[in-house]
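Here we describe the complex-level prediction in full. Unlike the single-chain runs in Section 2.1, the four entities below were treated as one system.
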Amino acid sequence: MLTTACKDAIRAMIYIAKKQKNIDNFISIKEIANNLDLSFYFLSKILQKLVKDGFLESYRGPNGGVKLAKPMGDISLYDIILSIDGDDVFTQCILGFKECSDIKPCAVHEKWAPERERLYNLFKDTTLEEIEEEIEKKINIKL
Amino acid sequence: MLTTACKDAIRAMIYIAKKQKNIDNFISIKEIANNLDLSFYFLSKILQKLVKDGFLESYRGPNGGVKLAKPMGDISLYDIILSIDGDDVFTQCILGFKECSDIKPCAVHEKWAPERERLYNLFKDTTLEEIEEEIEKKINIKL
DNA sequence: TTTATTTAAGACTTTATACTCTTAAATCTA
DNA sequence: TAGATTTAAGAGTATAAAGTCTTAAATAAA
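The structure predicted for the assembly as a whole is:
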């Protein structure tokens, strides 16, 4: 469904958003990697994409790191997925046909197209803000 | 979402089911590969799994090939996906946590778990029989 | 201005998936 | 029985994704 790079990106963004609620500092990638038990090298690569796409702001040097470049409510899971994996999952035919559409459908288009649309809306509507609120409410949440 | 091997498997199974409605012969893998524009070598490999898992019956020699080992109504898209890709897509945490559950959820468990369940039911309920009926009704369907 | 800290960028290695080829085994037909 | 046909099985290759490392650039603080 999602690449591991994309999963890591989402976890990192949730971590950053959670931390940024309290203090507006830059958060070092090293700290994120350590806390989420991810490879610093790999995570650095992934976050560079989110910086390029305008979801993170980065700063070099001591006390440098990354921070959200937009309000939490303006960053959705869809945005992160699009940035890292692309939007194939939300647009592509389940059987891989490039020209599959309502007019020229594949054998399962009628089943899959609405489901794909549903997934799109779900991820588009789920923002970092909403996730943070969910985390606050519950205890025992894995990050 | 699905590997290309799995997509090819589904297309092949739909092709076999469609053909088998009329004649109950074994269908050669070469014929399937030619008609669906797939590599014979690759398709052979894929179909071997479906034979092992009891969804196809195979026969060697002249006029040999493969045919469905069960009624079309008893083979679902879920069965094919499970056989080729495994059921990770229907069971795994979207963020990749192995121990994610209702009791110890990840940050998006509440959003993803019901959706995963929905996808499971959709693919479980969609049988080759149903797909065939859909194909009969429409023209212009890509196989 | 030197040193430490931190991200950026690109090269590199490893692993998994996709894909191909060869040989063996089963079966039919002549 | 010999030859043709077809799947089975396993080895081998190519490509893409995952993961690591090195060097450069920016910045802060001593």
